[in-house]
Amino acid sequence: MSEDATWTFRLVDPEDAARDAFADVVFRAVDALRDALGEPYATRIGAVGFLVEDEPPLEKRPPGGTLLGLFEGVPGSLWGADWAVVPSRITIFRVPHERIYPEPSARARAVDSTVRHEVAHCFGTDEAGIRAIEAERRGGPRR
User: Fold this and answer.
1) What's the per-residue H, E or C state across the chain?
2) Where do the domains of the chain lie?
3) Hey, what CATH topology would domain 14-137 get?
4) What is the pTM of this model?
């Protein structure tokens, strides 16, 4: 090695690496859903902000439950939703996914499901409707 060569070392924080890897999984799920839905839904999803956070805020957590994702905004089914002053956003939470789904491929499937769930809320579907859609996707009866 020549005398004028320099070395640069960069320490990688394992938490930062985990955050980056999880964000990649989330945004791949968003892109796949956008492609699967096509227009006009793909454009509507493009107007939603997608965020990745470590944990949900304490005030948003359900008592005794786990929050994997959160839609905040005006559901698209409401009149005037297109003119909402604040854009809608969907936040996907990393730590609960990692805790419940330690295996990466299971976690990726769970992220895909969470993204679909929150996008359904964005389009105005309530919890009962989402449960029916999810049951149908799994091949079970609609409730």
Assistant:
1) CCCCCCCCCCCCCHHHHHHHHHHHHHHHHHHHHHHHHCCCHHHHHHCCEEEEECCCCHHHCCCCCCCCEEEECCCCCCCCHHHCCCCCEEEEEHHHHHHHCCCHHHHHHHHHHHHHHHHHHHCCCCHHHHHHHHHHHCCCCCC
2) 14-137
3) Zincin-like (3.30.2010)
4) 0.81
